C-alpha cells in the first residue's frame, strides 16, 4: 500500500537529493586530493633537482676550472717558455710541444660532458689551431734551426695572427658558467 502511493518521479527526485550532494562532495574531495598529490610530487621533484644540482655543481665548476687551465697550458707563450731548451733542435721542440698539447687534451677529454657542445667544439678548435700554428712554423724552419728559433717563430706568428683565440675561449667558459649557475 505504501509502495503504491510512491510515484516514480518521487523516487528519482529523492535519489537525486541524495546523489547530487554526494557527487559534489566526491568531486570536491577528488579535486583537492589530486591537487595535493600533484603539489607534493612537484615539491619532491624540486627537492631532487636541488639535491642533484648541489651534488653536480662542484663537479661542473671543477670541469670549467680544468678546461680553463688546459687552455692556459696550451697557449703558445706558456708552452714555448716551458718546453724550449738550449741545445734542442726544432724537431725536438715541435715533437714536445705537440705531445704536451695532446697529453693535456687527452687528460681533460672527459670534461666535455660538463660543457655545451659548442663550447667543446671551440676548445677543440683552439687546440687544433695551436697545433696548426706549431706545424706551420715548423715547416718554415731550416733543418739546422734550433728549438728556441722555432719557439721564436711560433710566438711571432701567434702575436701576428691569432693572439686572442685562447683568451676568447676562456671568456666563453666564464660566460657559460655564469649561465649554468
What are the defining features of this structure?
181 residues; mainly alpha; 83% helix
What is the typical, i.e. mean, pLDDT? 88
Largest sheet: none
- Summing up helix and strand content along with how strands pair, one would put the structural category as mainly alpha
Radius of gyration: 35 Å
Strand content: under 5%
Give the strand tally: 0
Coarse morphology: rod-shaped
What is the helical fraction, as a range of percent?
over 70%
Q: How many angstroms does the end-to-end distance come to?
A: 81 Å
SSE ordering:
HHHHHHH
Low-pLDDT sequence parts: none
> Tally the helices: what do you get?
7
Structure explained in plain terms:
The N and C termini lie far apart (81 Å). The chain contains 7 helices and no strands. The chain has helices spanning 2-5, 8-73, 76-83, 90-108, 117-139, 147-161, 165-180. The protein has a domain at 55-180. The chain is 83% helix and 0% strand. It has 181 residues and is mostly helical. Helix 2 (8-73) packs antiparallel against helix 4, helix 4 runs antiparallel to helix 5 and helix 4 packs across helix 6 (147-161).
Give a brief description.
The protein has seven helices and no strands. It is mainly alpha-helical.
Amino acid at each position: 500500500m505504501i509502495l503504491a502511493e510512491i510515484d516514480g518521479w518521487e523516487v528519482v527526485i529523492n535519489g537525486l537529493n541524495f546523489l547530487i550532494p554526494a557527487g559534489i562532495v566526491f568531486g570536491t574531495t577528488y579535486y583537492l586530493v589530486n591537487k595535493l598529490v600533484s603539489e607534493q610530487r612537484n615539491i619532491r621533484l624540486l627537492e631532487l633537482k636541488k639535491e642533484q644540482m648541489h651534488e653536480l655543481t662542484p663537479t661542473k665548476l671543477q670541469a670549467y676550472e680544468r678546461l680553463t687551465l688546459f687552455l692556459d697550458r696550451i697557449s703558445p707563450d706558456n708552452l714555448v717558455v716551458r718546453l724550449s731548451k738550449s741545445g734542442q733542435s726544432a724537431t725536438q721542440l715541435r715533437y714536445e710541444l705537440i705531445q704536451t698539447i695532446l697529453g693535456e687534451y687527452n687528460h681533460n677529454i672527459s670534461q666535455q660532458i660538463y660543457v655545451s657542445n659548442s663550447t667543446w667544439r671551440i676548445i677543440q678548435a683552439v687546440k687544433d689551431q695551436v697545433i696548426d700554428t706549431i706545424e706551420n712554423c715548423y715547416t718554415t724552419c731550416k733543418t739546422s734551426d734550433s728549438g728556441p728559433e722555432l719557439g721564436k717563430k711560433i710566438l711571432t706568428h701567434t702575436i701576428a695572427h691569432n693572439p686572442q683565440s685562447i683568451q676568447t675561449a676562456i671568456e666563453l667558459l666564464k660566460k657559460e658558467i655564469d649561465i649554468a649557475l
